[in-house]
From TrEMBL:
One family name in Pfam for this protein: MMR_HSR1
Protein's job: GTPase that plays an essential role in the late steps of ribosome biogenesis.
Species of origin: Thermotalea metallivorans
Amino acids binding GTP 1: 10-17, 57-61, 120-123
Protein name in the entry: GTPase Der
Leader sequence segment: none
Repeat keyword on record: yes
tRNA processing in keyword set: no
Domain of life: Bacteria
Keywords noted in UniProt: GTP-binding, Nucleotide-binding, Repeat, Ribosome biogenesis
Amino acid sequence: MAKPIVAVVGRPNVGKSTFFNRIAGKRISIVEDQPGVTRDRIYTEAEWLNIPFTMIDTGGIEPDTKDIILSQMRKQAEIAIETADVIVFMVDGKEGLTAADQDVANMLRKTKKPVLLVANKVDTKDLPDTFYDFYQLGLGEPMAISSANGLGLGDLLDEIVARFPKQQEDIYEEDTIKVAVIGKPNVGKSSIINTILGEERVIVSDIAGTTRDAIDTPFTHGEDKYVFIDTAGIRRKSRINENIEKYSVIRSLTAIERADVCLLVIDASEGVTEQDTKIAGYAHEQGKATIIVVNKWDIIEKDTRTMNRYIKDIRDRLAFMLYAPILFVSAKTKQRIHQILEMVKFVSNQHAMRVQTGMLNDVIGEATLLNQPPSDKGKRLKIYYATQTAVRPPKFIIFINDRELAHFSYTRYLENKIREAFGFEGTPIWIEYREKG
Ligand code: GDP
Ligand code: GDP
């Protein structure tokens, strides 16, 4: 399930960080950060009534004009509108309404996303006279809270959670392959999606009866059913500037959570960047199948070794996902675009593959004969039995005598042997040990 995203927007000093820290339950604020250190903790995981969600901290946005406060607030609002599912607009209940509040409210009124107007610093039960001015913002009834004293937070969280989008998951049939197209802005995600959707045998499905903005794009290709997850933000051309770029990663993360297969799009003219590595790492940790798609191949000057150089570089930088196939494509010239769906179908099958216990144990048995399990202080690792317990991703449990002896390198060796025998191309595989007396 994808976690809904909540963003808090408001003037400096209204209490956003205080609120953020309260909800997050951990201290992760500006206070902790040393000057000059780039803030990277732009989001945190939170939970209310057993519903997990992600909170974005837009506090670290650098203003870029002289009117610092206003430009900063506009950017926060922009990020919130682009990225969040629910926006909390925080004003200062002590200070009352200001012109800057009006300005941001004007922006927020244009979004279709739910906006909750919250007056912070109402530390007592009595509402200040200025409270009623906030109705002028045209964002409905203000809620009074005190982040410092913890007043009204429960009610606010109830309201936030009530506005989370309905999960679309259930409407797709079991055999629909869920695909997330992930990567930084401008690598060509939307171009790739549009090119695939424009292919001859691809038919985009109607989703009847969806009231809110459809965020997914379901389609069929021949007999096969697919859905591109969370395409709303990708296909709509956003005017996001580079300052905001990192926030788009959060959207990728939630798309990854819902997907079976990730298309990690990399710009050939840039190669693998640090941000690509982060996104790829998340897909890997989440146990998703991944295909690395190197786009804009048309603009690269090539000789006979160019492709191999790219492959080597990708394998070096994304060494934790050697299983991921690499495709070199161009959304512009459509070169090899038609191979993407074939590959998606293939890795999706690999991701869901289940091997027979007998065959698995034959492979493990042979592997241990070929390369003896490690020993330590006279005690040798004994492998009794292995079985696959899950798919998507494939998960194996290996029963052994002593977990201490199961070193990483031997696990990797076993993983390689399993891959040699069965494939599992494009998918991580999870290996877990159980001790058996
Ligand atoms: P931000 O700039 O919007 O992130 O605001 P901060 O969270 O840094 O808070 C600004 C100031 O307001 C700090 O001195 C906080 O202690 C104070 N503050 C935050 N919430 C409350 C509140 O509910 N009541 C009162 N009285 N002060 C608060
Ligand atoms: P997104 O932000 O990742 O969705 O990227 P877009 O699909 O909007 O593409 C960003 C820019 O790259 C646009 O100007 C596209 O025209 C361009 N672009 C996308 N794919 C290709 C490609 O294969 N080759 C070239 N030369 N340009 C491309």
